[in-house]
């Protein structure tokens, strides 16, 4: 694969992107699609870039979980990353990748916290602090070099992430006074695509024989979905079973928030007070498991029929994912910022049920008793 050009600039090299985008790029390359290779930009204080370079960009992903009730436990060697750069140290090299005529896509996963501007960022010398500022300078370097527009594929769990990121980049350009022709180019030549990503990546698997040989080993569930909103003349990425190209990503976001995230938060309300510690314990519990299935299929899924794709099938997949024998997803972790999550994930499902059927859903009403007027 070393002969393939560097076509993807990726902000972030954590477990998620390596078990998601980079794995899929590798598989597409192996299938003969010649997608290209990935240059990783590290902005955090860690030794990840060093490890990637020492290992020649190679690492392993363990895929473990249930598919159709059967256990899956397989190892994938991934070789799609060509090198890793540290933003603070290698900023000029990052800009060189931005100027490269081979570059076609920019991918990111900087978490929701990365979607903010830094008033102290400066446009001159070295890497700026915020992700939108870094992205602006990379794209400005490409614009000044006369390069063609690229496709930006943000993977942060932010609503309408492509639109939001464009707004932040344009605001940073305004603050720095480098708008004008650059603004037109950013709006019309660069393609900013809204996306939704869905895969649980759990990090280094305990007790696996590979950690001693691979410092970057990580584990993920079998399920994966990457929904990408089609828009204009965006460069086609590649073909892969997990990719869905759609006209509007919002129904897929709604389905995930209401069913997967909503079920997680509902379990915090119902199972955590009973001393149940993990999601898997909850779904296998003789009382909580049937309760959760009834809540999902009788009170959440019916409100989504006709407005999202296959809510029932997705719900079955979610419950199977929750029962993953290799994953200990602690309810205490899901409980962080619980009140805010209830208002976003569960309360709207209650209101949708009342509006659709003219009556109050009993199971949702039980766990929402403290939130209803």
List keywords for this structure.
globular; alpha/beta; 41% helix; 14 helices; 373 residues; single chain; four-stranded mixed sheet; six-stranded parallel sheet; 17% strand
Description:
The chain has 373 residues and is of the alpha/beta class. 41% of the residues lie in helices and 17% in strands. The strands form three sheets. Strands 5-2-1-6-7-8 form a six-stranded parallel beta sheet, sandwiched between helices. Strands 4-3-11-10 form a four-stranded mixed beta sheet.
How does the SSE layout of this entry go?
Layout (H helix, E strand, L loop, with lengths): L5 E6 L3 H4 L2 H10 L6 E6 L5 H7 L4 E9 L2 E9 L2 E6 L4 H9 L5 E4 L22 H14 L6 E4 L6 H16 L4 H8 L2 E2 L2 E4 L2 E3 L14 E3 L4 E5 L13 E4 L3 H21 L8 H6 L3 H17 L6 H12 L8 H4 L3 H20 L4 H6 L6
Parallel strand pairs: 1-2, 1-6, 2-5, 3-11, 6-7, 7-8, 12-13
Antiparallel strand pairs: 3-4, 9-12, 10-11
Helix pairs in contact: 4-5, 5-6, 8-10, 8-13, 10-11, 10-13
Provide the succession of SSEs: EHHEHEEEHEHEHHEEEEEEHHHHHHH
In what order do the strands lie side by side in the largest sheet?
Answer: 5-2-1-6-7-8
Number of helical regions = 14
Q: How many beta strands in the DSSP annotation?
A: 13
Approximate helicity band: 40-55%
């Amino acid at each position: 694969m070393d002969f393939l050009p560097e076509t993807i600039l990726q902000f972030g090299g954590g477990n998620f992107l390596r078990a998601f985008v980079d794995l899929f790029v590798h598989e597409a390359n192996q299938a003969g699609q010649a997608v290209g290779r990935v240059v990783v930009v590290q902005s955090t204080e860690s030794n990840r870039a060093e490890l990637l370079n020492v290992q020649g960009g190679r690492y392993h992903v363990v895929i473990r979980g249930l598919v159709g009730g059967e256990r899956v436990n397989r190892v994938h060697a991934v070789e799609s990353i060509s090198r890793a750069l540290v933003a603070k140290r290698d900023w000029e090299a990052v800009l060189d990748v931005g100027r490269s005529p081979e570059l076609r896509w920019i991918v990111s996963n900087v978490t929701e916290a990365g979607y903010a501007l830094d008033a102290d960022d400066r446009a001159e010398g070295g890497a700026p602090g915020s992700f939108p500022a870094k992205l602006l300078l990379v794209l400005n370097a490409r614009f000044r070099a006369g390069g063609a527009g690229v496709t930006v594929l943000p993977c942060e769990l932010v609503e309408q992430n492509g639109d939001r990121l464009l707004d932040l980049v344009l605001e940073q350009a305004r603050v720095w006074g480098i708008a004008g022709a650059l603004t037109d180019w950013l709006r019309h030549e660069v393609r900013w695509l809204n996306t939704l990503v869905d895969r649980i990546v759990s990090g280094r698997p305990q007790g696996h024989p590979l950690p001693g040989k691979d410092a970057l080993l990580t584990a993920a569930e079998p399920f994966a979905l990457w929904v990408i909103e089609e828009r204009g003349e965006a460069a086609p990425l590649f073909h892969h079973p997990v990719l869905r190209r759609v006209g509007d990503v919002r129904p897929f976001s709604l389905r995930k928030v209401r069913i997967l995230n909503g079920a997680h938060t509902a379990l915090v309300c119902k199972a955590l007070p009973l001393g149940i510690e993990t999601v898997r314990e909850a779904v296998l519990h003789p009382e909580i498991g049937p309760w959760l299935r009834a809540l999902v299929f009788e009170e959440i899924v019916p409100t989504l029929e006709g407005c999202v794709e296959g809510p029932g099938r997705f719900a079955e997949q979610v419950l199977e994912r929750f029962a993953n024998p290799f994953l200990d997803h602690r309810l205490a972790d899901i409980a962080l910022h619980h009140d805010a999550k209830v208002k976003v994930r569960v309360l709207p499902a209650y209101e949708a049920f009342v509006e659709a059927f003219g009556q109050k859903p009993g199971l949702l009403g039980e766990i929402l008793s403290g939130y209803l007027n």
